[in-house]
């Protein structure tokens, strides 16, 4: 098993980046394959950084993940541009206290699929929000999927449009839970 460990990155690279394009297209050059792999990894990192910044309540870092014309969408709610997205986060969570350490929740991003086309890409993923339960146990609170349009802006991958589709609970059920939580019920 130990001899296989050094080969794992190479195997993952080869599995993620086929040498021949689909549907009989031309064979990709080594440079094109490396660029495709780098873009794929950068986009996956972007999706993970989204969860990390949200959990850390690092709202500036979170908002910076969006392009200048970037949008965050959930149902009828649409926030355009990093400043509007930053304002939305502060209105939902409030300003984090200095030295904030989140011990109440964490976001998990999974099932990531990425399709790159030059300086544009699409990604699909699932997300799960885990909250601290009444006795400190991890409790699933919210699950859904993201549909993303991405753009390379100033040499970095950013969200052009991130659409959050809640699955469990439904948006109406989640609003009712949050209202009850705010009112102390």
């Amino acid at each position: 098993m130990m001899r296989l460990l050094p080969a794992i990155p190479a195997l993952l690279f080869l599995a993620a980046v086929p040498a021949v394009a689909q549907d009989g297209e031309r064979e990709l050059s080594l440079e094109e394959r490396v660029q495709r792999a780098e873009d794929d990894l950068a986009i996956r990192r972007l999706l993970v950084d989204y969860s990390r910044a949200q959990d850390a309540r690092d709202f500036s870092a979170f908002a910076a993940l969006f392009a200048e014309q970037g949008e965050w969408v959930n149902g009828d709610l649409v926030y355009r541009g990093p400043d509007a997205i930053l304002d939305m986060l502060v209105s939902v969570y409030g300003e984090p206290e200095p030295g904030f350490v989140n011990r109440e929740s964490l976001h998990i991003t999974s099932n990531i699929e990425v399709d790159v086309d030059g300086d544009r890409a699409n990604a699909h993923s699932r997300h799960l929000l885990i909250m601290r339960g009444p006795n400190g146990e991890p409790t699933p609170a919210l699950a859904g999927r993201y549909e993303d349009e991405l753009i390379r802006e100033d040499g970095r991958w950013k969200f052009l449009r991130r659409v959050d589709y809640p699955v469990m609970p439904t948006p109406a059920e989640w609003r009712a839970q949050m209202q009850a939580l705010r009112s102390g019920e």
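The beta strands are 66-74, 77-80, 105-117, 120-132, 138-153, 156-168. The chain has one domain: 7-183.
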